[in-house]
Amino acid sequence: MKKFISLTLLLMVTVVSFAQVRKQTLVTPWPEEYVFKVGSVEDLGNMHVTQSIPENEAPDKWTLLINTTIIKHVSDLTPAGIIEMFRKSTKEEAPQAKLTVIENKPKAKNVYVLFKVEIPRFHYDTQPQSRLYYIVQGDGELFVNYAATKSATMDKAFESKWVKVFKASKLQYE
To answer: What is the tally of structural domains in the chain?
Structure first.
């Protein structure tokens, strides 16, 4: 009986240890025509933000910006909750911004939402920007990706291309 209890405890410790080491990530197959370089990386406690631009562009003169953010310790958000959270934060930075939902999956294993935000100007910057967001609820993190251009409205070809790219993304464990 002692061997059984010892073996069970050892198995439980091994499972718990293994579960803590595994890390969920969102893998996105970036378009082959781009080679990206990291423009900035920030660790802000429960949030990790990476911004990338095409390798031949300067950080202050980008034409395409890829933002990948992981917000830790977030779970059980609905697409409606995610959309409302981003609608509110966007309006604070850019009151004239227009948010348009493209697709959301509230009943998927990992809920996700795709939407675009067209920003004529920010409070702090007159440069317009359009962003296509892909946000996925992971097991314990919220994965927020967007592709941005310096345009007040989003071109249909840009939207179609990046919707396809983001929908090909997969959550996996490392």
So the answer is: 1
Residue 144 three-state SS: strand
> Does any domain span residue 163?
yes
State the CB neighbour count (10 A cutoff) for residue 104: 18
Write out the DSSP string of 23-75.
-EEEE----TT--EEEEEEEE-SSEEEEEEEETTS-TTS-S-EEEEEEEES--
Domain holding 73, by residue range, is 24-173
pLDDT tens column, 124-137: 899 999 999 999 99
Q: Provide the 10 A C-beta neighbour count for residue 93.
A: 13
pTM score: 0.85
The three-point CA angle 50-56-61 to 5° equals 70
Question: Is 30 contained in some domain?
Answer: yes
Please give the DSSP secondary-structure letter assigned to residue 78.
-
Asked if residue 10 is part of any domain, the answer here is: no
